[in-house]
Every structure is written in C-alpha cells, then in structure tokens.
Amino acid sequence: MKKTSFILICCFAFIIVAAQSKSENFQSDPKLVLGEVFRAANKQDYSNLNTLCPPNKTNDGDTQRYICDIASSSEQTINEFISYFKNARVSGEVTYFLSSDGTEMAKVPFWFNHPSGESRSNETMNMVKVEGKWYLSSF
Fold first, then answer.
1. Is the confidence at residue 44, as pLDDT, over 60?
2. What is the pLDDT of residue 62?
3. pLDDT in tens, 88-133
4. What count of other Cβ atoms lies within 10 Å of the Cβ of residue 44?
5. Residue 56 backbone dihedrals phi, psi, to 5 degrees
6. Mean pLDDT in residue range 68-91
C-alpha cells in the first residue's frame, strides 16, 4: 500500500510539473505566444494573458487593453475578444529582425474575425523578446 501511494504521489507531482512547464514554455516562440491568445479565446481561460505583455510596458494600448487585461474587462469586451480570436489562426511564417537598438523582434501574420469584415481580417502581431521571453508589442 505504501509503495502504491508513493507511486501515485510521484505521478501527480510529475503531472503538475509538466503542466507548469508547458504553461511557461509558450513564451519561447512567437507562434506559441499568439497560439496562447487563440487558446484563451477558445477555452475562455484568460489566466496566462496578463503575462503576454512585456514587463517594461513597451507594448501598445490595444495589446494591453484587448488581450493582456481582458480578464478584468467588461462582459461585452470579453465577448468581443472571444469573437475576434476564437477561430483565429497564424497565416504565414514568422519574420525575425533586430530593432535599431538591437532588441530581438518578430512579426507573426494571422487571420482573425475582424468586425469590419474579411478585408480587415489579415493582421500582423508584432512581438518583442525581453529576457529570453516573447511578448506582444502591437498589432
């Protein structure tokens, strides 16, 4: 019985560590960061979105207000977020470059459900790498 309990405890500990590392690793790649936005809209789980804006606050107001702060937004704004991003998808390859000050940047093309129609649904998410993690910058 002790051996079985020990094995069960070890399995649960492994699952918890694996889940934590998965949630932390999505900031290792720009596509995964944007994928986290799409996942949040699908699952209505906004728990990671507040970590997607850079700690140095260099992102624009739209990424802050409509993505990173969505959990504390009105029900109407949350419903708009879900509508925009629930069926969103990455639509091309990531482009990496350095800014004029040497900061690593990325551009990720994506399609989302823009309220003004199909012609406005192609967008680019700009991202910045800070201390080894990718963050939303603007779109």
1. yes
2. 93
3. 999 999 999 999 999 999 999 999 987 777 767 899 999 999 999 9
4. 10
5. -85, 5
6. 96
- Burial of 52 from C-beta contacts in 10 A (0-12 / 13-18 / 19+): buried
What does the CA dihedral 34, 35, 37, 39 come to, rounded to 10 degrees?
Answer: 180
Give the pLDDT band (50/70/90) at residue 137.
Answer: very high
CB 45 within 8 A of CB 71: no
Please state, in angstroms and as integers, the Cα–Cα distance from residue 32 to each residue in 26, 50, 66, 89, following that order.
5, 15, 18, 11
Which pair of structure tokens corresponds to residue 16?
């918890």
Task: Give the span between the Cα atoms of 17 and 20, in whole angstroms.
Answer: 5
Pairing state of beta strands 104-111 and 95-98? Answer: antiparallel
For the chain, what is the HEC assignment? CHHHHHHHHHHHHHHHHHHHHHHHHHHHCHHHHHHHHHHHHHHCCCCCHHHCCCCCCCCCHHHHHHHHCHHHCCHHHHHHHHHHHCCCEECCCCEEEECCCCCEEEEEEEECCCCCCHHHCEEEEEEEEECCEEEEEEC
